[in-house]
Amino acid sequence: MSATRYTYLGPEGTFTEAALRTLPEAATRELVPMVSVPAALDAVRNGEAAAALVPIENSVEGGVTATLDELASGEPLMIYREVLLPIAFALLVRPGTKLSEIKTVTGHPVAQPQVRNWLRAHLPDALWESAASNADGARLVQEGRFDAAFAGEFAAATYGLEALVTEIHDAENAETRFVLVGRPARPAAPTGADKTSVVLWLGDDHPGALLELLQEFAVRGVNLMLIQSRPTGAGIGNYCFAVDAEGHIADRRVGEALMGLKRICPKVRFLGSYPRAGVATEDVRPLRRGTSDVEFTDASDWLARAQDGRA
């Protein structure tokens, strides 16, 4: 395995590359662009790279399904950290192109919902066609296959384009969350401001089946930050659920919730416990009474005494 190589959703000039370069270790790694999320993750699985950075959630469009599906299937991988990146698009064109001359536009599918209103207002007749990434859209404009692409302004120089319009976003403060993914290993120690990600499969479809999963978290005071259903491929109505929960697998409340889920789910895939981006320990909400590690330990000790006749 190449311990110095990180892959990412390419080509050069993507928001993913920009997010990856915010990591301190990126300065000492070989950063290799890949044509797709599956390709970036497969490079980790087959030992060509130590880790991959891929997008997993957008504050406007929600989960990035390609990443969620890849992490839920195939050889297991694990998330080690996350990166939040503010997102604003630029309309990149070949030098000299005027707004009135734009008939075709491109960008990553996740970009379209973030610029839909701007498109409707300024280019209502332009034809949209999706690209593998925003930077790939810029490359296609460079090659003359489209008139304009929505991408990061920083991609203009890479592809010999100019930013005709900048700071395009329908939603203020839009962000995309990226995750650094590697092969499974022991999670880093808890920081006090952590997140745990899992994928859960229902045993069978019956009234209250999803509620049973959620109760394993709720009764232990574990707050959920994301839950998204994804088809399993086994037919209409068959789903798994990608879940992000506050806390670390080493926290008693989280560990016991996962044990409870393992008892009732035919399959549970642990995707990692890792620090929450942009959240300090002092910003984490106080735990509900009865859900701290100390209280779990006290209850366990009481049960042992009761079983021994000493309660």
Termini separation: 54 Å
Low-confidence stretches: none
- Please provide the ordered H/E string of secondary-structure elements: EHEHEEHEEEHEHEHEEEHEEHEH
Cα radius of gyration in angstroms: 22 Å
Overall description:
By secondary structure, the protein is of the alpha/beta class. Helix content is about 25%, strand content about 30%. Strands 1, 2, 3, 4, 5 and 11 form a 6-stranded mixed sheet that branches.
Present the secondary structure layout:
Layout: E1 5-9, H1 15-20, E2 30-34, H2 37-45, E3 51-58, E4 62-63, H3 65-72, E5 78-86, E6 89-93, E7 104-107, H4 112-122, E8 127-130, H5 134-142, E9 148-151, H6 155-158, E10 162-168, E11 175-182, E12 194-201, H7 209-218, E13 224-231, E14 239-246, H8 252-264, E15 267-275, H9 293-307
Parallel strand pairs: 1-2, 1-3, 7-8, 7-9
Antiparallel strand pairs: 3-4, 3-11, 5-11, 6-9, 6-10, 12-14, 12-15, 13-14
